Amino acid sequence: MHPVPAAVLRALPDPVRRARRIEAALSGGLDSVVLLHTLAQLQDSLNAELSAVHVHHGLHAQADCWLDFCRDYCEHLGIPLRVEKVTVRPAGQGIEAAARQARYQAFARSSADILAAAHHADDQTETFFLAALRGGGLRALAAMPELRPLAENPAVHIWRPLLPHTRAELAAYAAEHRLDYITDPANADPAYLRNRLRHDGLPRLRRIQPQLDAHIRAAVALLQDELAVLQETVDADWQTVHDAHGFNTVDWRQLTPARRRQTARRLLLELGGSLKNQAFLTDFCRVLDQIGTSEAQWPLGARTLIASQNRLYCLPNDWQRQYTPADQTGSLKDWQAAGWQLRPAPHGLPPATLARPLRIRPAAKGDLLATPVGRKPPKQILHEHRIPPFIRPCWPLIADENNRPLALANLSAPERDTVSDGLILCHPAFDRFVPPIEQTA
């Protein structure tokens, strides 16, 4: 067996060995042509269904010809091809970054367990230097791991089996097997920093230090090891600050500033998919550290992040409309069919009350709820239960068929005639806003 397939087979990660489907990214260039040919040679050993995906960016006049080449190549190998035509929208970022984003979104739509990419050792060196030139931190300098879940779809793992091999080795493989491939003229365009680095900067450095690539690969291996330790710390901190009620900013403030930034970074990535920039992360941490129990809001694309009462809530931008109840009357059976639940409450409503028609609506001016110490407006009761101020105007009020206020949803009923083994009507959507008991004591 040729050294490249043999090396790939020897180093198969366990998730690849267990994979039922492997899809190879095929651009038509040297690297991806060699990758698909290599995997085709190993198909029996991989014990997985092999396919390919070509992302048609439409950025070059020859893009359709490249697609035809990939179709012919896959037909020759007897490998199914998925074609993804994407629209690249720079929208404030460079064309390369926008194309990469569109490409990875296409990869994320894969039904395979593994998405094989053709990055090689030279790519790894270039990625390291690009990260350094752009002021990247540990994650950027750690470059490309051999295997990781796709951020866009963690069910799919991206696998880079050619990372130990140089571009020269892949060219020799292609020559030995007489493989045709496409040469993208954009790879020689000096307008792109990667190309200037590849064709000018790195050759000069290699003349100064012939072992440059070996040293960079060793450095990247160390950085990836250190990154794994950092990730373990972030995961542990995440468990500290995140519970069933959401992100606890009191616990978050007990962390050191560096760990606060790392945990906030994870939060923003999980909620928004990406960070706007480092300045946004810094300002986010500054505000979150200073507001205490006050409120602050941040837009995150189609969602809004709200800090209130020492908690963080991520809601759709139209959350007011979604959470404000329509004014409707129905039987208990009707409300349960609509997703409402009956739960025991220390001071719940009597079953006889719940057997009558119930009206659920927003609280109105002049509403009062009877309590053991007198009648109180709903907003005062919500305040006493430490319900976040921003959601209080949306909180559902439960009334009888005559519109007499009985209780507030999800909270113990305040009336004098409630019973210790009573019930309260709750909607799960509002559970997240009810603080844990220890915070309401």
From TrEMBL:
Residue ranges occupied by any Lysidine-tRNA(Ile) synthetase C-terminal domain in the UniProt entry: 358-425
Positions that bind ATP: S27, G28, G29, L30, D31, S32
Keyword terms: ATP-binding, Cytoplasm, Ligase, Nucleotide-binding, tRNA processing
GO biological process: tRNA modification
Cellular localisation: Cytoplasm
GO annotation, cellular component aspect: cytoplasm
GO molecular function: ATP binding; tRNA(Ile)-lysidine synthase activity
InterPro entries: Lysidine-tRNA-synth_C, Rossmann-like_a/b/a_fold, TilS/TtcA_N, tRNA_Ile_lys_synt, tRNA_Ile_lys_synt_N
EC number: 6.3.4.19
One Pfam family named in its UniProt record: ATP_bind_3
Reaction equations catalysed: cytidine(34) in tRNA(Ile2) + L-lysine + ATP = lysidine(34) in tRNA(Ile2) + AMP + diphosphate + H(+)
Coiled-coil segments: none
Residue intervals passing through the bilayer: none
Top-level division of the source organism's lineage: Bacteria
Function recorded in the entry: Ligates lysine onto the cytidine present at position 34 of the AUA codon-specific tRNA(Ile) that contains the anticodon CAU, in an ATP-dependent manner. Cytidine is converted to lysidine, thus changing the amino acid specificity of the tRNA from methionine to isoleucine.
Domain free text: The N-terminal region contains the highly conserved SGGXDS motif, predicted to be a P-loop motif involved in ATP binding.
Family: Belongs to the tRNA(Ile)-lysidine synthase family.
Record protein name field: tRNA(Ile)-lysidine synthase
Annotated organism of origin: Neisseria bacilliformis ATCC BAA-1200
